[in-house]
Amino acid sequence: MSVSTNDTTAKVSLRGFLAKYSVLIAFAAIVIFFSVASPTFLTPANLFNVLVNNVVMLAIVALGLTIVISSGGIDLSVGVSVDMASMIFVMLLAAGYSGVVGVAGGLGAALIVGVLNAILITRLNISPFLATLGVLFIGQSTQQLATSGGQPIYLTSGYAADQFNAIARTALFGMPTPVIVLIVLVVAVHVLLHRSVFGRYVQAMGAQPGVAWYSGIRVPRELSMVHVLCALLAGVTGILLSATVKSYVPLSGNAFLLDAIGATFIGTTLSRERKPSVIGTLLGVLLLAIVKNGLLLVGWNFYWQQVGIGVLVFLVLAASFGLRRAAH
Amino acid sequence: MQTAKRDIAVSMTGISKRFGPVRALQNANLEIARGSILGLVGQNGAGKSTIIKVLAGIIKPDSGSIVINGETVTSLTPASVEKLGVHFIHQDRLLVPTATVGEAVFLGHEIGLGPFVSRRGMERRAADLLKRFFGMELPAGTLVKDLTTAQQKVVQITRALAQKASVLVLDEPTAALVKREVDSLFDVLRRLRDDGIAVVFISHYMQEIEKLCDRVTVMRNGTDVGTVDPRQTPIDEIIAMMIARDVGEMFPKRSVTLGAPVLEVSNLRLGGSFDNIGFNVRAGEIVGLTGLLGSGAKEIVQCLFGLKTADGGQIKVEGREVALSTPVKAVRDGIAMLPEDRRAHGVALGLSVRENISLASLRRYSKSGLVSRGAENQAVDSLIKELSIKTPHRDALVRELSGGNQQKVAIAKWLSCQSRVYVLDEPTVAVDVGAKVEIYNLLNRLAGEGAAILLLSSDLLELVGVCDRVLVVYRGRLAGSFSGSAMNSDALLAASSGARSNIDGVAA
């Protein structure tokens, strides 16, 4: 565009700019606000705590949902994948199996959830929303049946605790292992979704499923892969969760579902076409995490934190949508 | 003219309408008499549907006058025209599938008290009407979706009658009906005519016009070129009135050198749609395929791309037999498809030009599962240039391109794939004339490079102008194969409406 001194043009492009970067602007504003409001907010110790406790596990689940939402679907059963991985992992350790077997078993359980979703969606042609909702119900009951009505399993000492610590309490180059896992997965999913042939197919299915099918893409196969990957990523969170809290608490995975969806959609505001992206999702997760932490530091309790997050998601999305419409 | 002045229900005179540079209607006239069935015929784009939409209040004419029941009306809306007793039965069923017959008949005019609807009252009244007018009895509470297409048409007509229709306009009402249903629909329409209702019947089937109509108005190039009695005028003469002779240089000429057969179809069969279909398309050849809605031509094309699986028969590509059960296999076997619904199946509007063009051939531009952007960009850029796709840059969204350029992107996708057989389903629908010529040029070039092209189209002038040979499907069978001087719109139209066949000319 040529240089324009026209007032309205300037206004419109400013609005466009605000719309595009509303997440980043909100992010900066919130960081500044909490830095002023709470002296501990900007300390390295607190930020590190946020990263390890509020970001890593949510971000990994959100990565899976980013793939699913990119394909035009949804996975309401990510909490079940988290729980199933966690349950099998803990049960195997309780039975005396090694950490490696435990992790493999846990991921295997998540894999089964993903395969079940894939079959329901691609073979029985059930919409992703309903298929994964059904799996959510089945998965929740399964856990309660397997734990005599929802009894948690605690393994706070002995061999199992050592195995947990080997995952959650170790560090590489000064980075806790879970953070390393997150970094590896972020890079891997970014490459997969934005650089690979598979990722391009996923984007095409999300943009216009008919075109994907008419282009000779094996839509059922690719869609199965999408749901299996999502479940596996949620399974990784399940392993990290158990290792961190040294226990399995039934139905604890559901807490990730809505936050992960929220983070993914906050991330879509970065793209003009509202496409999910790995970077966007990561920003969404960080935004949610610092708001939770900040509100906690300024003394809001858990319930008010939820209200705060709801309002924030509203504001970011409304600002992005509204300003963008005005810019057109 | 035997109809006296007082019998005229609707009189439209001097109607003109422009859409941008396109003159859809030029000084067109339409007169609809009570107690008579008027046929309305013309090629696609002749202005039939536009003049009907003007009458329906959907399109506002630029000039002209409309008199309904002796009253000059100035601004029509769909609601006001219904109040005047003019009702329309549109081609695509517009009934709520999950409604009961009673609900469908009285939709928008529910019977009841205040906000409360009397469901039983509506079912009873609907049953009465159906029985009185059509002698049709349906179980109480039957749902619309459980009716046959013909029964749904009858329910739609009943809906119009329930609101005291004096003029009934039916747009291609027989397209989805079988013979027996057509006959009973005709009985219904004749009874309505005898009751003094004015019926307008739009159809491509010339035999139906001849059988049913008292008069027929022929439209061409946006105007009415004559009104005749179909029982006294031979079909050929009516067809001659419909066809414009000024094809001009819209269709670029080319010299043909045909190679070996690339696509060989034999004995192809799909239950309920078509049977015993066999033809070849040779390298460098453009073969046209046409047929009326419901003739089976569309389904043949769908079988060739694995969208439907044929019940029997053989398809060979370059001599190799292929099993086309899904588009995945069709693409792998070198078949490309340009679908009719471009926005749903042809191009993804929300993806970039680049992503669309490389979508079917990504493997060519990738190494170990990762897309090599350099190779992709290079291929995409050269296709954009080759096809002169007008786009700001390769990463612009396809949504921002014109219809013709979107269609070129859809073609580029298959060029990038180096497909051998191109199946095109109405490729020039909703693209402007300039883009049409470019698409024709592109087809010629593809053929020149040795591709085999099968063009499904209902635009007869296009078929005559572009194809080396045209196959006509009528009621599920090949009704003719036309080439050379025998390939003209008169012959194609006659063959596709069953008036004439040319079975001897069908290639074995």
Query: In CATH's first tier, which class of the largest domain in chain B applies?
Result: Alpha Beta
Structural class of chain B: alpha/beta
Kindly report the spatial arrangement of strands forming the biggest sheet of chain B.
Answer: 6-9-10-3-11-12
* Biggest interface and residues each: A-B, 22 and 31 residues
List strands and helices in order, with pairings.
The complex is a heterodimer of chains A (328) and B (508).
Chain A: H1 7-20, H2 22-37, H3 44-70, H4 78-94, H5 99-123, H6 128-146, E1 153-154, H7 158-168, E2 171-172, E3 175-176, H8 177-195, H9 197-207, H10 209-214, H11 219-245, E4 247-248, H12 254-268, H13 278-297, H14 302-327
Antiparallel strand pairs in A: 1-4, 2-3
Chain B: E1 8-19, E2 22-33, E3 36-41, H1 48-55, E4 63-68, E5 71-73, H2 78-83, E6 86-89, H3 101-105, E7 112-113, E8 116-117, H4 119-134, H5 149-162, E9 167-171, H6 179-194, E10 198-202, H7 206-212, E11 215-220, E12 223-228, H8 235-242, E13 261-270, E14 274-282, E15 286-290, H9 297-304, E16 312-317, E17 320-321, H10 327-332, E18 335-338, H11 342-346, H12 353-358, E19 366-367, E20 370-371, H13 373-386, H14 403-417, E21 421-425, H15 433-448, E22 452-456, H16 460-466, E23 469-474, E24 477-483, H17 489-496
Parallel strand pairs in B: 3-10, 3-11, 6-9, 9-10, 15-22, 15-23, 18-21, 21-22
Antiparallel strand pairs in B: 1-2, 1-4, 4-5, 7-8, 11-12, 13-14, 13-16, 16-17, 19-20, 23-24
